[in-house]
Amino acid sequence: MDFIKNNLAKINTTLPEHVTLVAVSKTKPVSDIQEAYDAGHRVFGENKIQEMVSKYDELPKDIQWHMIGHLQRNKVKYMAHFVDLIHGVDSFKTLVEIDKQAKKHNRVIRCLLQARIAKEETKFGLPFNEIEEILASEELAQLENVKVVGFMGMATFTHDKEVLQEEFSSLKTFFDQQKNTNTELTILSMGMSGDYQLAIENGSTMIRVGSSIFGARNYII
Ligand SMILES: *Cc1c(COP(=O)(O)O)cnc(C)c1O
């Protein structure tokens, strides 16, 4: 009883005011999300578009839905009418598609560019220089229905604090540099259940926490 509500309260009491908690509800039933909602929480993250759409349809409409997973471009259209923030954008092509779909609904969709910070081999995320290129490009300025508002990073899957610290702080440094010339950059999404305290110490403004709120997931996706 009150498992989710208590977990949320515990985390919230430790969070600085400038940090937004995204409750990652992937694989969890709508009843779990409703419990968090009833406790006052409004920001939820999912990593599969179809799953997010069906939950959106069933749940209160003042929920802010964040897409945190890897994006399949051909599915962007299914969430374009409601998604609040897309964390995992890792190509200019994807921004073009989000812009196109957002336009159909007369919306501006906020996006984060996913940076590659993990030392481990990963195909996700952009190197810093490619992020810089996208931000500076004429083409981006022409996309009226997307707004790049910050970056997202996933650290190496490790308990080694030094590795995590180095990866988080490298993104924070890059974020601060880019902010100097781009005032629209306000969000730095870093940190999950296992590493969010460290991420906050290293400048995160948005954490994505799943298992510490809803409990362990039954399967890995
Ligand atoms: C699942 C997921 C999370 C949350 O993971 P937990 O370890 O359960 O907190 C955060 N970010 C992304 C991108 C995820 O896919």
TrEMBL record:
Modified residues (N6-(pyridoxal phosphate)lysine): K26
Domain Alanine racemase N-terminal: 3-217
InterPro entries: Ala_racemase_N, PLP-binding_barrel, PyrdxlP_homeostasis
Classification via Pfam families: Ala_racemase_N
UniProtKB keywords: Pyridoxal phosphate
Keyword Acetylation annotated: no
CDD domains the record matches: PLPDE_III_YBL036c_like (cd00635)
Protein family (similarity comment): Belongs to the pyridoxal phosphate-binding protein YggS/PROSC family.
Matches recorded under NCBIfam families: YggS family pyridoxal phosphate-dependent enzyme
Function summary: Pyridoxal 5'-phosphate (PLP)-binding protein, which is involved in PLP homeostasis.
Protein name listed in UniProt: Pyridoxal phosphate homeostasis protein
